Amino acid sequence: xxxxxxxxxxCPLAGSVxxxxxxxxxxxxxxxxxxxxxxxxxxDLGYGDLECYGAKNVQTPHINRLAGQGLRFTNAxxxxxxxxxxxxxxxxxxxxxxxxxxxxxxxxxxxxxxxxQFTMADLFKSAGYATAAFGKWHLGLxxxxxxQDWNAPLPAGLADLGFDYHYIMAxxxxxxxxxxxxxxxxxxxxxxxxIEVSYVRNFDGEPTAREHPELLYNQRSSHGHDxxxxxxxxxxxFMKGGGKALWKDENIADSITAHAIGFMERHKDEPFFLYFAxxxxxxPRFPHDRFRGKNPMGVRGDAxxxxxxxxxxxxxxxxxxGIADNTLVLxxxxxxxxxxxxxxxxxxxxxxxxxxxxxxxxxxYSAFEGGxxxxxxxRWPNGIKTRGESDVLMSQIDWMAxxxxxxxxxxxxxxxxxxxxxxxxxxGTDTTDRPWIVxxxxxxxxxxxTKEWKYIEPNDGPKMIPWGPxxxxxxxxxxxxxxxxxxxxxxxxxxxxxxxxxELQTLLRKVRRGDExxxxxxx
Length: 523
Known about the structure:
Helix content: 10-25%
CATH topology of the largest domain: Alkaline Phosphatase, subunit A
Oligomer: single chain
CATH class of the largest domain: Alpha Beta
Order of helices and strands: EHEEHHEEEEEEEEHEHEEEEHHEEEEH
């Protein structure tokens, strides 16, 4: 484990956190400087999936309440259009495309964030916070891919990344192993059913979803997801054993929420940081029976309702413990939405006019805005006096440096290299846009977005996702330039504005090679 005392010291803020793009005003002397921080990170939740963002076919009263008591951002972006790289960037402050091996991870991936890296959890821990992670992880466990012994404590895990406690899914719900990991070992381990996992070959005698679709009594696959069968649902990867440790998909939300509430109760008298990463909207969508049939969109809509319930449970616990006013809650998503992502759950057929990406073109995986444009809502009654809506251009890459500014903490040299202090944007005290953000598609294509313009670099790949989802990739063999003031990405203006195109190409080239602070010309 890391010796954090040798890594950093608490100090006055000055200009030491990242390279601050804007100065943070001195804190109000009446404002507490050590709020609890809860980061609620949804999975595949689109910009248009919440009622407070204009959704018509689903009710999300608890998230509506959160937005009504805080700030709702309308121009916020995840760092990538898929899960693993977004989570890597969020928790390290480094763009995932800078580091090989950060693509969507297999369930038996080794640790993608290495123990020697300084993480968001390390930051809070160094400031005296109790830290915990719950729910979806999908950033690898153990020291070596495919080398984990799931029947014993893992030699490397979240304790090495700054988390005091964790109760997580090793990867995500559609990938094996389908067990929870609690403090480095399988929760509720069943010694009568030792666990074996492979992403190469099946185990003798184990049925697969491809060969035995009749065993898929809970949900059938539409494409892929035809390997191991757990809880009557096909998965990616092969698995044997697990016994009593295997999760029931319908209980995942209840389980991670109960463990998170328990952590909050134990640490109500000291500052805590809680990374709460839900699975609900990600496939396979299999919400609890009490949420079934509540929504015209079927199980995807029901899953959104279940996610809203989860948020409500967290908020109600804060109220019950008397710590709501000095708790900063930040809710967002890891990437844009996807409808049919491998299971025949009628999500495509039952949209009924619902637009998961809201006004944006594209979805998860895509270089278009729908890939990374996400909901983001913040509430902190003691610290955020501004309520309502903000259209400030924002990227999740900056949240680590912004939290460091909030804590008045210094990060070790070289850590969070891409994160910039935009605390004023988060708290509503600064409406100056970030000059530019970088977006990252599933195939590695990078884009640069300013408040007014977007440049997508050329890519010779297919126009549509080739493996199943009906999603535009954003690929084009020539450069793309869009005027985002028009509200979409329909007319490529690269030929009409060559100077603007060249400027954004140059900016992206500088960002890619790691120039400290590349600038744009004034509009």
